[in-house]
Amino acid sequence: MEEGKTVNTARAIEVTTADLPLHCPMPHMLLWNAHPRVFLPIEQQGEALCPYCGTRYTLKGGPAAGGGH
Prior knowledge:
By secondary structure, the protein is an all-beta fold. Helices cover about 0% and strands about 20% of the residues.
């Protein structure tokens, strides 16, 4: 396994504002090309579900102040 890469087995991932704009798969995933890259709107709700692999992303600290865009 490549150093610093994680296997795409986590089904719940907490992300921070540093990870925005959020997309799945994320760059640190070992199988970064496991499915087409899809951008996920997480700012307003504080969570998003990838329609391809089912990974649930949660924004640390909850929805962005002001509801995002």
